Amino acid sequence: MIQPHIDWLDRYFAEGVFISAGQKQPRTGCVILVKSMPLEQLEQILQQDPFQQVADYHITEVHFSKTGSGFEQLLDN
Question: Is the backbone of residue 70 left (phi > 0), alpha (psi -120 to 50) or beta?
């Protein structure tokens, strides 16, 4: 079941939708940074994740006002 999830991640990285992803520590799930988009669009993307059958998604919208060098794309324009 992990490969279909990886394929799903790869698709949205290739489309430029996902910015970064990784496992939480302790390993209780993962975090995905996503480009700004309407909530409905993000929910549709999450519904395509093969893990959606067993995952609980918690969406938190963040408006970054400051970043380190190299992460300027995260700033609100």
Answer: left
